[in-house]
Queue: 3 jobs
Job 1
Amino acid sequence: MEIVTRNNFESWMQKLMERLDRQDELLLSLQPSGKAPDPMERIRMFDNQDLCMLLQISKRTLQRYRSIGALPYKTLGKKTYYSEEDVLTFLSGHVKDFKKEDIAFYKARIHNFFQK
């Protein structure tokens, strides 16, 4: 391992930039269209607060849905996240918990949430 000093800082930085450029080119070559991935095409996730606001339910109700296994979730650290697909599936399968006419409203709110 080389110690970076003021004298060799520029050459070290140049090597680092070249390496990052090569990594960038490699990642772009792995993409089928040759363009960088769009972050909006990734899986869309809600946290507890977002989902409570969108569905107009309490945190306790959300916890109950998780506990009975009705709503799939993922945890990262101490935060809980829900994928958009899982939430839409949950809404479709639990119509009795929500008014039927409100299902379309909630689905529209979920889709519009990411349109900002």
Job 2
Amino acid sequence: MNVHDSERLSGLLEDAGYVRAPEGSDGDADVVVFNTCAVRENADNRLYGNLGRLAPKKTQRPGMQIAVGGCLAQKDRDTIVKKAPWVDVVFGTHNIGKLPVLLERARVQEEAQVEIAESLEAFPSTLPTRRESAYAAWVSISVGCNNTCTFCIVPALRGKEKDRRTGDILAEIEALVGEGVSEITLLGQNVNAYGSDIGDREAFSKLLRACGRIEGLERVRFTSPHPRDFTDDVIAAMAETPNVMPQLHMPLQSGSDPVLKAMRRSYRQDRFLGIIEKVRAAMPDAAISTDIIVGFPGETEEDFEQTMHVVREARFANAFTFQYSKRPGTPAAEMDDQIPKAVVQARYERLVALQEEISWSENKKQVGRTLELMVAEGEGRKDGATHRLSGRAPDNRLVHFTKPDTEVRPGDVVTVEITYAAPHHLLAEGAVLDVRRTRAGDAWEKRNAAEAAKPAGVLLGLPKIGVPAPLPAATGSGCGCD
């Protein structure tokens, strides 16, 4: 969700006449924007470290502006300009559309502008967006969250859930497909609670089926659902809608019923494993991923073993594994029995080792299969050295494949046979079996030509953003908005 917000910030600023600065040139940009997350403890340290690094550069460049937005800005508000008085603009999660105006006001008044709206001013998808991908796009269907998980600060910063009109969602998707996009990911803090505003518990499954009727839309994904709201009609819609991909990210957080209760997660181990069983029965080839928090306050060795049990039973394709991070303002931060760091680290390492073993085992089952891949841009760091390209299988597994003799563009589709499996990727070392040029590939080619022809302008620096892929283990709290 933060990545998509960054795309909107880019769109707003480009509409206002700014131009993206070359990668790595943030110290030479006229405007540098930080879009922050407050979920993990190291977000604070990273922000103030980066602001400190830019302070001398700003002194050397009169007129340079620095803006800080997002969840950490919503939380810290005036603290940011006290710790870093060289910051020009601070804006929150509900008023990202004000950034160009705030920058101009700070320039004219020559003083920091801090503006934090307490509620949503306009649904974010009505703002201009500078999509990072020509072939794949995020589409928000809701913002905010009605859950009260004790470890999560996001509801306090993003507000209550607000659903977007179905017609507006479908209109945006159809417009994107018209521009060449062939894959969309539906976004929400709790995506399958969509419809709670109008009391329609089947609204999300109906939306998935409606996406299936959009001509030219080849792949539909969504993130992140909540086990509480994951109903049988959603499983049926996934299984029966051809362009909804056989991939599911289902946050577990813990396999222990007492810990889930302390987290205020409104499901228990049996409910979670029951969902996994139903999904596998309807879609045997589905790749299921998850979020897991290790070391939540009060977690005993027995509690942790219950998490390990669920991991063994569910056999996740991959997992985002997090060490519990105490966030001020959350109920969990005040709980007794905070777990010592050494204990958390040891449990975390055991969990990562188990999941690595399972991920590798599950990937080995893909060897010998023939898969259609959507060619990706920039996902294979060694592609240049190995003369390979990279793509995503329908279940979102990353596959590196031998570069064919014919031209292949991001967004095109290739057919390959899997020859080797590693824990976090697959290889197709033989010749590509088929190449299908697509409208998405045409769109990528057209965008690249347009980018090359752009005139110089006022330079804008933002963190590198794009369509993110599943990652190996990380540390943090396990909230889906990271």
Job 3
Amino acid sequence: MHAGVGDEIQVHGRTVGSAEQRGEILEVRGPDGAPPYLVRFADGHEALVYPGPDCEVQAHAD
């Protein structure tokens, strides 16, 4: 997985009834766009994310 600052990450719910989370990538800490990513989610909290198979990255439109 590769991402850049400003891209959006979606974390899909892994169980029935769990909500999808969306956030903006604030910082890429791995080499050449690789994880981990510092992400600010819609509710305002920030977390270091090591994305798994339940995640998607959408490139930021310029």
